[in-house]
Amino acid sequence: MKIKVSCLQMDIAFGEPESNYKTAAKLIEKAMEELPDIIVLPELWTTGYDLTRLDKIADQKAQQTIIFLQSAAKKYQVHFVGGSVANRGENGVKNTLLIINKEGNVTHQYDKLHLFKLMDEHLYLEAGAGKGLFSLEDQLFAGVICYDIRFPEWIRAHTSEGAAALFVVAEWPAARLGHWRALLIARAIENQCYVIACNRSGSDPNNHFAGHSLIIDPWGEVLAEAGEQQEILTAEINLDLVKEIRKQIPIFEDRKPASYN
Q1: DSSP character at residue 238
Q2: 7, 146, 193, 198: which one is catalytic?
Q3: DSSP 8-state code for residue 84
Q4: Is 131 a catalytic residue?
Q5: What are the phi and psi torsion angles at 25 (to 5°)?
Q6: Segment 40-86, tens digit of pLDDT
Q7: If you average pLDDT over residues 114-131, what whole number do you get?
Q8: Which residue in 7, 102, 112, 193 is the catalytic one?
């Protein structure tokens, strides 16, 4: 089964949700010229890392973002791995990944498990608990957020259940671009899955971001890579290749989890 995916590598306006919705709308319209099946947005794309003002700008129960993505999904008949949003609920603010299918249904929400202390996430955000497993087009996928990719056991917790592609949404700094590429390629190889990683571009008052969104096949080959600036990255993935590779080198069958403890 072949699926075309497009990553919207946005230059996010710091703390300006309305400006970011307008940018996203333009990028979505542009991306649809390639007729993708799935569109992916980056981490915290409505606010950027304006964490100190989340009490004012976080999206209440992610409702504005959900409505925005539902409208676009139904208009263009496209699925969304809708990046993540600062999601204000009864127990604080979480960094929430949104999955919305082409009918406009919210099929899954994943709250970022691993908070990145180097960027003060632990001071302003609450960690999640559940997994990022979701289905689109009757295929099982996984979605994680930025820092999560440094925890291979967390990724394996998803692929061991059969996820054929890993979607990563991020605001990854340029200073660690080498880590970004190496970790994503490693996650693809060791899990024999596609990795579709959508990073942001641009800068905020404290960080310069790497861009370099990537689409990687289960052998670790880079199918497409963006530059540093705002752009749309599109490639086709073939999920049948995942089955072939997992059969050829059966790492999931050969695992010895009882010995790993």
Answers
A1: E
A2: 146
A3: E
A4: no
A5: -60, -40
A6: 999 999 999 999 999 999 999 999 999 999 999 999 999 999 999 99
A7: 96
A8: 112
